[in-house]
Design brief:
The radius of gyration is 18 Å and the shape is globular. It has one domain. With 207 residues, the protein is an all-alpha fold.
Length: 207
Amino acid sequence: MKKIGRLDRPDNFGSAQIFSNPVLERISRTHISVPITLFLAISSVSLYFGLTTTIPLWLGFAVLFIGIFVFTFVEYLMHKVFFHMEPDTPIKDKLQYGIHGVHHDYPKDKDRLAMPPFVSAAYAAILYLMFTLVMGDYALYFLPGFLIGYTAYLGVHYMVHSYPAPKNFLKVLWVHHAIHHYKNPDAAFGVSSPLWDYLLGTLPKKE
């Protein structure tokens, strides 16, 4: 099993101090509403400019939904490969803990369920440049889809760590992520959807 934080903690409450510098420590935290608002605003602006192009509306929205679908795969891959990398060197150990291990130690820490705003804004800018380079004006539809997927991930992740599981079909998301945190960190990597765990064989084994 890969080392992901201190999995044997008797409790999962509280918060960790990552930086000794108080300014760095403060900006490493953010309320979930900040990146969600930022991504929705960028998506709206991008979609507005998309509507001014000659791309047919039906095709634009098809690209938007493809963007959402692609994000679910990127979410799964980043969680499995990057966030759960094997920390086999001191640098990788520190990086892995700061990015994700701390979340496994303190999953109830609501201020560290999303990247700080300046990191989120940098992500959005880089994604826009990458998508535009690859697909031109279609990026104006693909980017909103991708960011809507990201927003859904942030919202689901926040809710499963902050509220009891609902008594409806959405309960599966709470159960799926709880297994990842409290039973098997090497399975159940999908947060907004268990789709890729199902397709790629990382669903938790049924007991």
